[in-house]
Amino acid sequence: MNKWFKWACFALLIIFISETKAQEKVTVGEKQILFSKILKENREIWVHLPKTYDDNSISPAKYPVIYLLDGENNFEYYAGMTDFLSRPPYADLPECIVVGIKNTERTRDLTPTKSQKKSPVNPNLILFADSGGSENFRSFIQEELKPFIRKQYRTQEYSGLVGHSFGGLFAIHTFLTHPDDFNAYVANDPSLWWDHKILISKTRDYLEKNKNFPAKKSLYVSQADNEEQQKNWNSDMTQAINEFRTIVEQNGTLNYKHTFFKGEVHGTVSYPGNYEALKFIFNGFRTNIKEFAKSPEQLEEKYKTFSDTIGAEFIPSESYLNIIIKFMKNNEFKNAETYFMNLKNKLYPDIK
């Protein structure tokens, strides 16, 4: 009896090991280590690729890139968010490569000036002693990280920068000082109180010198409901964000949106903010597949209008065209089916 019990346990163990090995892992992205000569340190980045990136049934495509600050906090949900919002046939945005940048010295990298202050809970403690290194960090992204991503992955010449708190401060500072670095900027509850609201002054100075903001750029700002939190921490947060909003909206030339999220505090606002920001930045991308049965040419017209508005060329993906063709075939819209088959052959010629 003891012998048979041992053999049964051994058999169950073999089955368990076999089934465990057969399981496939679901991965969100991959980690890369890049040594920065500018920052003189290794930087860890996390890269999420669209679901169609390695699809051998379609032609290799290029994708826009979103650079996400505080990657260790935001990467997993943000990657899923872009996948969800880019699902055909009613996608709100194109599939994107997401590059999450993990922090080393967060205050150093994300603040534009050297500015120390006493802790509001312990006056003997000095905060932000290592601040003021954002220009070096920007140079790292622009001169080292972006070329690395372009070399390693198939990228389109469209990029966005997403940050929260100090990351939002960094995004707005980059927008004001180097607007051509990115096509779109997202600042979730940005710390515009920093250094006596220095970026408020820089925004005014920018408009006095330039009169208008750069064309075909997008800026999205979310604002948390920080009233209770500010009583104990930073009473300047809301005032600074509202001042910035007033200046930008009075100018009226920038593709700008501001959203106040009631009930969301500073630590939670980036999630709904990023969702709304993606839909805002890529507003006009969504198409209605049912409209194309009678007017198939509308698809190209919509993509042309969207490309002109956003300042970069976008075309229907091959995977979306396959869905459209299948829809037309299943519903016996033969003329439309032929139109889209010809369009697919034009945009994605068979080079095999």
Give an overview in words:
Helix 5 (166-177) packs parallel to helix 6. The strands form two sheets. This protein has an eight-stranded mixed sheet with strand order 1-2-4-3-7-8-9-10, sandwiched between helices. A two-stranded antiparallel ribbon has the order 5-6. The longest helix has 21 residues, at 2-22. The chain has twelve helices and ten strands. The mean pLDDT is 91. It has 352 residues and is an alpha/beta fold. Strand 1 (30-36) and strand 2 form a beta hairpin. The chain starts with a helix and ends in a 5-residue tail after the last helix. It is 46% helix and 17% strand. The protein has helices at residues 2-22, 71-85, 106-110, 134-152, 166-177, 194-210, 227-232, 237-251, 270-281, 298-310, 318-330, 334-347; strands at 30-36, 41-48, 63-68, 97-101, 117-118, 126-127, 155-164, 184-188, 218-224, 255-261.
Primary descriptors:
352 residues, 10 strands, 8-stranded mixed sheet, single chain, alpha/beta, two-stranded antiparallel sheet
Strand order of the largest sheet: 1-2-4-3-7-8-9-10
Average pLDDT works out at: 91
Q: Give the CA-based shape.
A: globular
Note the total helix count: 12
Largest sheet: 8 strands, mixed
Multimeric state of these chains? Answer: single chain
State the low-pLDDT regions, or none. none
Rg over C-alpha atoms, rounded to the nearest angstrom:
24 Å
**What letter string, H or E per element, gives the SSE order?**
HEEEHEHEEHEHEHEHHEHHHH
Helical content stands at 40-55%
Q: Could you give the distance between the termini?
A: 64 Å
The computed structural class is: alpha/beta
Percent in strands: 15-25%
Number of strands: 10
